[in-house]
Design a protein that fits this description.
This protein is mainly beta. The protein contains no helices and 11 strands. The strands form 2 sheets. Strands 2, 4, 5, 6, 9, 10 and 11 form a 7-stranded mixed sheet that branches. Strands 1-3-8-7 form a 4-stranded antiparallel sheet, with no helix packed on it.
Length: 121
């Protein structure tokens, strides 16, 4: 059974930083691209960041480029999202996802439950 469990969400002030983690079990983590998505109330799910199987390729949504960093640890089966200079518009439920292949941009087929991030102004 594939499980993705996010942690690290919470309340942060505008301009602050927060790091999220997602630990994966039940699949070969080191062979899967990983991604982070977010969904705010009343809005569609938005792509945040993706990383290839070995961390060699990373991609970001336009709204977070230059502020967020995705990384992974294939020994710990964990993918991270470091959020810096956060803004109220970053408030959302953040979910991680496991990719259909080693490479980014191919799609995702497993999802976590999500963790809430709230940015206060």
């Amino acid at each position: 059974q594939v499980q993705l469990v996010e942690s690290g969400g919470g309340l942060v002030q505008t301009g602050g930083s927060l790091s999220l983690s997602c630990t994966v079990s039940g699949l070969t983590f080191s062979s899967s691209a990983m991604g982070w998505f977010r969904q705010a109330p009343g809005k569609e799910r938005e792509f945040v960041a993706g990383i290839s199987w070995n961390g060699g390729t990373t991609i970001y949504g336009d709204s977070v480029k230059g502020r967020f960093t995705i990384s992974r640890d294939n020994v710990k089966n964990t993918v991270y999202l470091h959020m810096a200079d956060v803004k109220p518009g970053d408030t959302a439920v953040y979910s991680c996802a496991a990719g259909r292949s080693r490479y980014v941009g191919v799609g995702y087929n497993y999802w976590g439950q999500g963790t809430q991030v709230t940015v206060s102004s």
